[in-house]
Specification:
Length: 139
């Protein structure tokens, strides 16, 4: 399962469709081919059936993020522009008067409506990604 990786890649700004249980390999390859997607999988045989693909070897989330960003460099300007839940785009909004989150750069997903704002959680995510070195050129 690469659900956590999918969420982190969305945080990094990649457009990620996440499919799991109940979809067969032929269908996955077809979806990727029809949409020019990069296939991300832990299944070696599946990764050999389609290119471009990224074979994820680790089960640890930090290592998985590094494995992907070694091949596909994230753009720092794309950070926090996608909904981690549904892959929608985040649009700047103004909440009701008096809502403390108005001072914290609030955004709403244009698909599912989830509201995001900046805070210690976003600072922690940035520090974590910097520690992993995802924006380093020499990875
Ligand atoms: Zn959403």
């Amino acid at each position: 399962m690469l659900g956590r990786l999918a969420r982190y890649l969305r945080i990094l700004g990649f457009s990620v469709i996440y499919e799991h249980d109940g979809i067969d390999d032929n269908r996955i390859v077809e979806i990727c081919r029809n949409n020019n997607y990069v296939l991300i999988t832990r299944d070696r045989l599946l990764s050999q059936r389609y290119h471009p693909s990224v074979l994820i070897g680790s089960t640890e989330i930090g290592d998985q993020i590094v494995e992907f960003t070694r091949k596909y460099k994230p753009d720092r300007k794309s950070l926090f522009l996608r909904c981690t839940v549904c892959n929608g785009k985040l649009i700047p909004i103004k909440l009701e008067d008096g809502d403390y989150r108005n001072r914290m750069n609030p955004h709403r997903c244009n698909v599912c409506g989830k509201i995001y704002w900046s805070g210690t959680h976003t600072t922690n995510i940035i520090e974590y990604l910097e520690k992993l070195g995802v924006w380093n050129e020499d990875l």
